[in-house]
């Protein structure tokens, strides 16, 4: 009787453990399957996020490139408008001086400098070089203005008055054209320097070539030119 009872008492816990173990095996398999499915979903989600981000970046690359193309063409048009007005001025100054050279004269060194700069400006078609040369011509003209400033006798001469009016009118048109140009250049340069366009412009994107654009220079006025109206400054010949 005792052995049966002991065997019965010993057997009961073993059966319970077996039953519990058999119950937990399906649960463990289900848990592992759930974790595996969750891991796959997370991986797929991350891949989708990366693909979406890359798609957005590529879209920004394409739209940014189209925008920089349009802005570049706009700057070139504005630069051509400035060149048209500068051409009028640079053709006008030597012609006007030549028409009155019989009784008027320039400071020779400054005139030679302006003539040299004008020749260089005429010889190049590069926008950046033309902007630089034009700024130097403005500086040279401002030196003439400072050197020859007060000649009241010239105001009574109708020819001189007409020449001054023509030069002043040309300068006004140049000033307006330069303002439009500088606004266009500012818009272009900001577009090119901001993220992510600066990355696209220098390095490209995922095998796509770099844009390779450079910023445009702006027209600037010297301090002297800002304080005076550029004009043909002449002295009466003795």
Outline the structure in words.
The chain is mostly helical. It has two domains: 1-62; 70-236. Helix content is 79%, strand content 2%. The protein is built from seven helices and two strands, in the order αβααααααβ. Residues 1-11 and 228-238 have low confidence and may be disordered.
Question: Characteristics of this structure?
Answer:
single chain, 238 residues, mainly alpha, 2 domains, two-stranded antiparallel ribbon, 7 helices, disordered N terminus, disordered C terminus
Explain the layout of strands and helices.
Blueprint: H1 2-99, E1 104-105, H2 108-123, H3 127-147, H4 152-155, H5 158-193, H6 197-203, H7 223-227, E2 235-236
Antiparallel strand pairs: 1-2
Helix pairs in contact: 1-5, 2-3
Whole-number mean pLDDT: 75
Largest sheet: 2 strands, antiparallel
> Which oligomeric form is depicted?
single chain
Task: Quote the distance from N terminus to C terminus.
Answer: 152 Å
Overall tally of structural domains: 2
Helicity, in percent? over 70%
The number of helical elements comes to 7
Strand content: under 5%
Tell me, briefly, the overall form: rod-shaped
By secondary-structure content and strand pairing, the structural class works out as mainly alpha
Q: What is the radius of gyration?
A: 40 Å
Read across the widest sheet, the strand sequence of neighbours is: 1-2
């Amino acid at each position: 009787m005792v052995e049966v009872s002991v065997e019965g008492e010993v057997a009961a816990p073993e059966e319970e453990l077996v039953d519990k173990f058999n119950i937990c095996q399906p649960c463990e398999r289900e848990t592992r399957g759930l974790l595996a499915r969750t891991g796959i979903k997370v991986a797929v989600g991350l891949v989708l996020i990366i693909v979406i981000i890359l798609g957005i970046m590529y879209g920004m690359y394409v739209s940014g490139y189209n925008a920089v193309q349009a802005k570049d063409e706009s700057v070139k048009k504005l630069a051509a408008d400035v060149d048209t007005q500068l051409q009028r001025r640079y053709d006008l100054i030597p012609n006007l001086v030549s028409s009155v050279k019989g009784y008027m004269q320039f400071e020779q060194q400054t005139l030679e400098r302006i003539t040299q700069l004008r020749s260089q400006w005429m010889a190049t078609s590069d926008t950046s070089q033309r902007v630089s040369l034009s700024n130097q011509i403005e500086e040279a003209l401002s030196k003439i203005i400072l050197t020859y400033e007060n000649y009241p006798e010239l105001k009574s001469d109708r020819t001189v008055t007409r020449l001054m009016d023509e030069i002043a009118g040309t300068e006004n048109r140049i000033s307006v054209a330069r303002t439009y140009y500088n606004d266009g250049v500012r818009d272009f340069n900001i577009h090119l320097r901001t993220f992510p366009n600066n990355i696209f412009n220098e390095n490209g994107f995922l095998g796509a070539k770099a844009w390779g654009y450079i910023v445009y220079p702006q027209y600037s006025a010297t301090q002297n030119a800002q304080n005076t109206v550029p004009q043909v400054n002449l002295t009466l010949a003795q």
